[in-house]
Amino acid sequence: MSGFRLRIVFFLSLAAVLPALVNAQTSADGSTPPSSQVANTSSPDADLRSQVDRLERLVSEQQKRIDALEAGRPTTASLPAPANAAPAAVGQSGASISSPASPAAAPQNQPPAQIVEAGSSDQRIRNLERQIKGLGPISFSGDVRLRGEPFFGGPADGSLDRMRGRVRARFNAVADLGSQFRTGMTLATGDINDPVSTNQTLGGFYTRKTIALDQAFAQFTPKQFTALTLTGGKFGYPWYNTELTWDKDLNPEGAAQSLAFQLNTPVLKRIALVGFELPFAEVAGTTVNGKRIGQQITYGGQLQTTWQIAPHIKLSAYSGYYDFHGADAVAIALARASSKNPQTPFTGVLPLNSSSPVQNSMYTTTATNVVTISGTAYPTGVTSVTNSQFASKFGMFDNIARIDIDTAHPRLPLALIGDYVQNTEACANLINILPAPSNTSTQTFKRSVNAPCNPHQRHGYWAEARVGRLQNKGDFQIGYAHIYIEREAVLGNFNYSELRQGTNVTQHRVDSFYQLDRNVQLGFTALIGRPLASPEPWLTRLQFDAVYIF
């Protein structure tokens, strides 16, 4: 390979001096050279010999440089450069080559790229590694999930029967920036208007699928007080929950604080307090003197404790409260996203979408355009949503107990989970429902409600049992959960997206997973549900998954 490169360099160098050789030979044949060359051709044989000697030196220097590059070491060989050449030569790889002198000894006007020693790909890789280490250790991970999902049963008209394929892809990057700071980001597929699902349905005439920012956060744990952790941005849940209240694919936004202590007592092993402030919308005032843009936000906190109640039994208890300020912003965003207004077709970014129908009691006002002819009003058929409000406010008191049992079989741990939630402000927003405006010559207004609000329908339950683990090849896990959610118990577009509907629902879930390989999982889930107090047949939803983890 070195011989081949030497021949290439030889021919390139020969091409550089060929004009001089031709001129020298022309002078030797007695032809008249240009006047600018008369002084240089008085001795053609000597000049030709000089050119050949220069060519030999040039080839020798090029070979030394090539040997140095292949050996991965710097070279001190310097080439004679033309008068119009750049201060540093460019090697075969296109990288700037310089002597091993320190940057401090380099000329002040030398470009930074010529100061950095980058004579080989190995050296450039080492430079990149040093830059990465300067930021902190970075880890990458992700997964791709393929899913087949048939539906059958449900409404008698078959409106929910379907068979679809879905895909989910996620990519994570996390960096530890020293002993106190940590940051990370996640990219994920899914409808960007749906906060509770990263699934992408296959179809749409083979169009490209959306990938969006799913997490972007920074975390601070002061080394003087490691019990405290502060988190900001868009992040994973810092509190423990089940999908009775929060879907696992949702990543909240805002700030969170965690104060946790490990205790060395016979029974109480850990105690922690988590607080969070999660803005979800901005709403501008509509009055003449009140157009301030207000922040709609969720405030919450959770007390966490862990108890060793027996040698092989651990109990974890979580008690939290989630207070949604300005939940009506969610109601109007949902109503506008689902309205079929021909003047605002389904293009571009819609306000808010939901994977399952939202069943909380909602009052919605619509405006229909009319034209008046000879005193008679005629509707044009163009209808738009002007206002939507929940009948309830949402202040949810959530209590979870988890029991972990060591069965003495490492592959068969047993977990029992119970979750009970109560909305302490069910139907509390009824006094704030705005009446429909008076009709005008160009618009008529109508207010409707999807379901009357009953303050007693404010409870939700989740009971789950799970055995097995998913760590090593050959591991398996089996689980069963029963979910029961009354209409006003939770905010129905942020909880479990796979339910028959967000609230006013009873649901059974059976799932099993098998660790086929260290990086491959196979899964099956059956979801069977229907609305509460309804004669509707059970809707069965099956999910067949293959998950590839990297």
Summarize the SSE layout with pairings.
Blueprint (H helix, E strand, L loop, with lengths): L1 H27 L15 H28 L40 H4 L5 H15 L2 E16 L8 E16 L3 E9 L10 E2 L9 E10 L7 E7 L18 E10 L5 E17 L8 E18 L2 E13 L2 H11 L23 E12 L2 E15 L3 E12 L8 E10 L19 E7 L9 E10 L7 E10 L19 E13 L2 E12 L7 E11 L1
Antiparallel strand pairs: 1-2, 1-20, 2-3, 2-4, 3-5, 5-6, 6-7, 7-8, 8-9, 9-10, 10-13, 11-12, 11-15, 13-14, 14-16, 16-17, 17-18, 18-19, 19-20
Helix pairs in contact: 1-2
Produce a short descriptive summary.
The protein is α+β, with helices and mostly antiparallel strands and 550 residues long. The protein has helices at residues 2-28, 44-71, 112-115, 121-135, 328-338; strands spanning 138-153, 162-177, 181-189, 200-201, 211-220, 228-234, 253-262, 268-284, 293-310, 313-325, 362-373, 376-390, 394-405, 414-423, 443-449, 459-468, 476-485, 505-517, 520-531, 539-549. It folds into two domains: 2-80, no CATH class; 136-549, Porin (Beta Barrel), CATH 2.40.160.
Write structural notes for this entry.
15% of the residues lie in helices and 42% in strands. By secondary structure, the chain is an alpha+beta fold. It is globular. It contains five helices and 20 strands. The longest helix has 28 residues, at 44-71. Strand 13 and strand 14 form a beta hairpin. Mean pLDDT is 83; it is low at 14-42, 74-119 and 342-348. The strands form two sheets. It has a 16-stranded antiparallel β-barrel with strand order 1-2-3-5-6-7-8-9-10-13-14-16-17-18-19-20. It has two domains: 2-80, no CATH class; 136-549, Porin (Beta Barrel), CATH 2.40.160.10.
